[in-house]
TrEMBL record:
Protein name: Glucosidase II beta subunit N-terminal domain-containing protein
Keywords: Membrane, Transmembrane, Transmembrane helix
GO cellular component term of the entry, any: glucosidase II complex
Keyword Cell membrane: no
Glucosidase II beta subunit N-terminal domain location: 25-127
Classification of source organism: Eukaryota, Viridiplantae, Streptophyta, Embryophyta, Tracheophyta
Regions crossing the membrane: 7-26, 158-176
Length: 188
């Protein structure tokens, strides 16, 4: 009973870590580039080398143009994409990531700097907007599009996480099966 509980907790921990790691991998990536970074092998945009997906946002600069580090400050030529939902998205130089200054209105550029950035996107996005019927309709339309893009992105991530969880479950069951066989034969 104790062994199965440990395996269950291990499985839960691995599932949580897999879903967390997907969010880290896609940090700082422009929505138009998500498909570009979706494959297992990714080529630097300057064409110099090909790298595996696990080297994306790993904190080490592999591409001279910064392709492999859109969410870190590892590459001097890198760019970080601020989604800034509710306001205007923007690109930052990678040197501005985790520099203790909130450059993105959503605070996404300071994910690892131990400071808390207040999300001011909605406030900033509406400061200069006159409150007419047409501008409210346009604002709602933009919010709906962003929400649909997010849903598609989350579904892709869930599909990958689900696939990894199934593989992990099969491996755990396979391990348990052999453990039972070895136990019956007296090897354990």
């Amino acid at each position: 009973m104790e062994t199965s509980r440990k395996f269950g907790l291990l499985l839960l921990y691995l599932m949580i870590m897999c879903s967390y790691s997907l969010a880290i991998i896609m940090r700082g990536v422009h929505p138009k580039d998500e498909e570009y970074f979706g494959s297992d092998l990714i080529r630097c945009k300057d064409g110099s080398i090909t790298f595996s997906r696990d080297r994306l946002n790993d904190g080490f600069c592999d591409c001279a143009d910064g392709t492999d580090e859109p969410g870190t400050s590892a590459c001097p030529e890198g760019k970080f994409y601020c989604r800034n939902e509710g306001s205007v998205p923007k690109l930052l130089f990678s040197s501005r990531v985790n520099d203790y200054i909130c450059d993105c209105c959503d605070g996404s550029d300071e994910y690892d700097s131990n400071i808390s950035c207040q999300n001011t996107c909605f406030q900033n996005g509406n400061n200069n907007m006159t409150r007419t019927f047409s501008s409210e309709v346009i604002a709602r339309d933009k919010e709906d599009r962003v929400t649909l893009e997010e849903l598609v992105e989350r579904l892709r991530e869930l599909k990958i996480v689900f696939f990894l969880e199934v593989i992990l479950c099969v491996l755990v069951l396979y391990f348990l099966r052999w453990r039972i066989i070895f136990k019956r034969r007296g090897y354990l």
